[in-house]
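I can't quite decide. Please look over this sequence plus structure tokens:

:::
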Amino acid sequence: MKRPILIHPDPRLKKVCAPVSDITDEGRALADDMLETMYAAPGIGLAAPQVGVMDRLIVLDCEKDDEVAPKPLVMFNPEILQASDDLSVYEEGCLSIPDQYAEVTRPAEVRVRWLDRDGNEQERDFDGLWATCVQHEIDHLDGRLFIDYLGAMKRQMITRKMVKLKRDRARA
């Protein structure tokens, strides 16, 4: 089931999420809903707080080639174990901040540990777009948005645009 995506500014997007204690059928159903919502948006990542659920759960799929099968990842309680000293810059966007993009510098490679949808512990190294995306989504779980990496002026300008967008949508 497709879920509505919260738009910044929304206080829920600035809160730290609670760890998921048990992987339940309800949690797996939420992950499926999040994947459906992400693909429909379309996006390459989505965090539970973006759909109003304050749990440490993210989904991502950075496979953009239409010739290749999707590679959806569901991560409960993801944590970054290691980050490279090498940095990379990507132009990031966010489904909670539609049509706004900015360059963000992050570690080029990260090692992440998480629980999969069956409750099994996983650990993997990510680089390129996958590394950027997983860091961006984990940031959501800690109440951080990509615009928090920008200067105050640019951040305020984007926030004002989002306030106007929300106002316009409420009128429609």
